[in-house]
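How a chain folds remains the central question behind the approach discussed here. This step matters because it turns folding into a mapping between discrete strings. The sequence in question and its structure tokens are set out directly beneath this paragraph.
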Amino acid sequence: MTILRRAFADLSVGQVHYAACGDPQAPAVLLLHQSPRSWAEYRDVLPLIGARCYAIAMDTAGFGDSADGGVPASIAQWARVACELLDALHIGRADVVGHHTGGVIALELAAAFPERVRSLVLSSTPYTDEAFRRARAQRPPIDEVAPSEDGSHLAALWQRRQGFYPPGRPDLLEAFVRDALKVGHRVEEGHRAVASYRMEDRIGRVTQAALIIRATNDPFAAPHAQELQHHLPQARIVDIEGGMVPLPDQMPEAFARAVLDFLSTRP
């Protein structure tokens, strides 16, 4: 049985939390979560990948149990902190997996620190260009709800996400609400950081082998897969049928299988 271990690393922003599974001497796989989630998005994925690799899921700076250091939130900042964690764990190179916001951070990590990223898995990752930024600016906040004395904002959080989560899985919505409450007033920071990220200026720097995972029932990210592949001609697309916004904890076996199949065949 692969044991999951949790720990903190002292980085520039303060203490950053991570969970890990597997042999630290095995090839490292760093997993980055969506907003406003935490490492727990990969709770069931970690042992599956950790059976063959050293799998690490970190809490992005300012999310979960990780400090933000009082530094303004940005994709570039979060990628720098992810690289600091690799340094702290004495990992020279890692395969990097990101879901939603985590995929955007993973792409920046590959662009800014190419020598540290062996390959890239972009799961349900948007392509953020000027058209994306314009469209996002015209939409209301994704998860931000006004606090209320009677607690009705908790139900509002649930209802904001319910249509994008599988029916009959209240556990997934509970996990989302727990993480969103931890972030508090910063619940929208990840979405704002994605919306302001100029991926069109960065994606050309990415030369690593890449996999694009498309969750077919994810209305936010599934339409971006072809556009991402256009800018990453070395990437291939794998569909996970029925996958929705919470893909890693909705379908951990299918998710881990897609990642491991890619890692076993990448150059």
Observations:
- Residues 11 and 84 are 7 Å apart (CA to CA).
- The mean pLDDT is 95.
